[in-house]
Amino acid sequence: MILIAERALAAHLTTTRAASSSEAPAGGIAGWAADLMDSLGAAGAGAAVALENLFPPLPSEVILPLAGFAASQGKFSLLAALLWTTAGSVVGALALYAIGALLGRDRTIAIAARLPLVKTSDIEKTEAWFTRHGTKAVFFGRMVPIFRSMISIPAGIERMPLPVFLGLTTAGSFIWNGVFVLVGHALGSRWHEVTDLVGLYSKAVLIVVALVVLVFVVVRIRTAGRGTHRART
């Protein structure tokens, strides 16, 4: 009987380990992020999020729920996951802010003047808009794919006061990160379900951005065509 019990226990442990290993992502961005967290703990989650800010194609909607799942597995605490991912967001945002500050307003206008379909007046309008709504853009922009990263550059160009930028970035990032980390923690091995859902949101945002860019280009081309026609007549 004892021998049978020992064999049953060994079989159960083997099954449990196999199930646990099947829950861990393998390959792709999720596998890369999981390896970082296995190697560095919560700091690995923070590093992954910092890189996501610098390279927007890295999806935070994969990294953050995965960090929550890792916390649910006891690899690090939930508080550590929240603090490190927020710190990673702030570090990445600061790097992009520095790029904007180094680029500066004059260089930005000079570069824009050389781009097709872009006018200096467009940059000036954007500058005026940012002056009026920059604080809201930095805070709420943390919750919009792509813009979450890009909004730091105009903040640097306009030299938004650094304490204000840090405060807004930290608050917005903590809310965005916190939602995904907590949901990933609650879902456990089903953490990828939130990734699938938010993937639809990200695609919708990208489609809207693409349509806006398309409309902008069409309007610019038509305006340029009318200007050429008038010049000839």
Descriptive report:
The structure is a single chain. This protein is an all-alpha fold and 233 residues long. The chain has helices spanning 2-23, 28-40, 42-54, 60-72, 78-114, 120-141, 147-150, 152-157, 162-187, 192-232. The protein is elongated and about 55 Å long. The chain starts with a helix and ends with a helix. Residues 1-22 have low confidence and may be disordered.
Short description:
With 233 residues, the protein is mainly alpha-helical. The protein has helices at 2-23, 28-40, 42-54, 60-72, 78-114, 120-141, 147-150, 152-157, 162-187, 192-232.
Could you outline the blueprint of secondary structure elements for this entry?
Elements: H1 2-23, H2 28-40, H3 42-54, H4 60-72, H5 78-114, H6 120-141, H7 147-150, H8 152-157, H9 162-187, H10 192-232
Helix pairs in contact: 2-3, 2-4, 3-4, 3-5, 4-5, 4-9, 4-10, 5-9, 6-9
